[in-house]
Design brief:
7-stranded mixed beta sheet, Rossmann fold, Quinone Oxidoreductase, Chain A, domain 1, ADH-like_N, globular, alpha/beta, oxidoreductase, 6-stranded parallel beta sheet, ER, oxidoreductase activity
Length: about 475
């Protein structure tokens, strides 16, 4: 302390360095003393955690006890079985999930097997056995650390899916065990079982497949709200949609056909033009070989009424220039930022630098509207629920039908990411939680699966510690 006081008074930095050196030596001494006496204090530390300190002789005895049923306890027994012995013997729940373990490339998404106690449902919740999940561009951004709504890793990604209800909590009136449902969630869908609010589940039409159920929520909610809630699409209008062969692109195209005399311009690579034209795009444009602004001006010199922009950067500026007076530009993504497996700071900087910049005066003089849309920031569950019911009604009428590009089992998540990131998909990419049986038959020695066991038995059983780990395929 005298050294600190002296350095403060004299302003001499040498005294500060001497003090820091003494402090370092003191901490080193404390650390060595702690290490020497750690064994003597281990019992005290464990007692603080509420457990007994096991000795080497006690370990085999404890492993034997793992096979015996644990004592009945209110917190461990399921509600429906009370305190009966059968409740204590209930098997833990084991399920597969895709976990984002860190930000970066495809290898950061890993297949894990988790084991935990049977979930205890709160009022208004349901337990869903997931059959199919949707892959969205938001997951590509999330893997690179660019999606702000995704919790920090490790985290299970996925915002939409479909499945079968296996259990219902109290106060759930309009859902029952066995119901086929579409599910929405901010994250956590990429796993075999999921506990979610019953308000975020929607009954599936009988003729709808699980793959279609997983393909509808994010893409069609986004498309419907942009077209009808924001842009007020009416007969005789024209719409430009980029990435027209993607999930949102097909949704926009189909919804535009529910309104008479709507012209749809869609950008996509030339190999996809025939497909998107059959799907309803009036004028397909190859953005790789042609300037889509010039191509649209040749067909419609005055421009278009609505531009839906998932790209950002310079494309937003082009979209604004293409608007007719009283037209609407809606920005709902920043795909130009994603140019590789990992975060590309140069692409991000370029996109940000070329971003559209406006003043209110310029908006007034141009008579144009600029909007932003992000489904994740809409907290109104009633609005989302009403829109979902409208979409399911349109599906029942045969006016909309998701196009499934491809389905990948959880083991093939890397291939799914590659297909979407390299813009190869035509329609929706789907993930299937169920193990790929053909692959198991073909490979006598499959890649190990990463096992994240939550039960006490898994922690103590050395055999389970060496259980297989399956990472996402490279």
């Amino acid at each position: 302390l005298s050294l600190v006081e002296r350095s403060a008074q004299t302003g001499n930095p040498a005294d500060c360095f001497i003090f820091l050196g003494c402090l370092f030596v003191g901490y080193a001494h404390i650390g060595s003393t702690t290490a020497e006496n750690l064994e003597g204090h281990s019992q005290q530390v464990v007692i603080m955690s509420g457990e007994e300190a096991p000795t080497l002789q006690q370990q085999p005895e404890q492993e034997k006890k793992l096979d015996e049923p644990p004592p009945a306890a209110a917190s461990d027994s399921p509600r429906e079985s009370g305190s009966s012995p059968a409740a204590a013997e209930e098997k833990p729940l084991s399920f597969r999930s895709l976990v984002l373990t860190g930000y970066g490339g495809y290898d950061k998404v890993k297949l894990q097997v988790k084991t935990q106690k049977q979930p205890q449902l709160e009022a208004g919740e349901v337990l869903v056995r997931v059959k199919a999940c949707g892959l969205n561009f938001a997951e590509l951004l999330g893997r690179q650390g660019l999606y702000e709504l995704l919790p920090a890793p490790p985290v299970v990604m996925g915002m939409e899916g479909s499945g079968v209800i296996e259990a219902v909590g109290e106060d759930v009136k309009d859902r029952k065990v066995g119901d086929r449902v579409i599910v929405l969630s901010r994250s956590g869908m990429w796993q075999e079982v999921l506990v979610v609010s019953a308000n975020l589940t929607f009954p599936m039409p009988e003729q709808m497949s699980f793959e279609e159920g997983a393909a509808i929520p994010i893409n069609y909610l986004t498309a419907y709200m942009m077209l009808f809630e924001m842009a007020n699409l009416r007969p005789g209008k024209s719409v430009l949609i980029h990435m027209a062969a993607g999930g949102v692109g097909f949704a926009v195209t189909q919804l535009c056909q529910t309104v008479p005399d709507v012209t749809v311009f869609g950008t996509a690579s030339a190999s996809k033009h025939e497909t998107i034209a059959q799907g309803g795009v009036t004028h397909p444009i190859d953005y790789r070989t042609k300037d889509y602004v010039e191509e649209i001006r040749k067909i419609s010199p005055k421009g278009v009424d609505i531009v839906l922009d998932p790209l950002g950067g310079s494309d937003t500026q082009k979209g604004f220039s293409l608007l007719k007076p009283l037209g609407t530009l809606i920005v709902f993504g920043a795909a130009n930022c994603v140019t590789g497996q990992k975060k590309n700071l140069l692409a991000m900087a370029k996109t940000w630098y070329n971003q559209l910049s406006l003043t209110t005066l310029k908006l007034m003089q141009s008579n144009k509207a600029v909007c932003g849309f992000h489904l994740g920031y809409i907290p109104d569950e009633q609005l989302i629920g009403r829109t979902m019911l409208k979409l399911l009604e349109l599906y029942g009428q045969g006016k909309i039908k998701p196009r499934i590009d491809s389905c990948y089992h959880f083991e093939e998540v890397t291939d799914a990411f590659k297909r979407m990131q390299e813009r190869q998909n035509i329609g929706k990419v789907i993930l299937l939680p169920e193990a790929k049986k053909e692959e198991e038959k073909q490979k006598p020695s499959p890649e190990p699966v990463e096992n994240v066991e939550k039960t006490e038995a898994a922690v103590n059983d050395k055999k389970k510690e060496t259980t297989e780990e399956v990472k996402s395929e490279d």
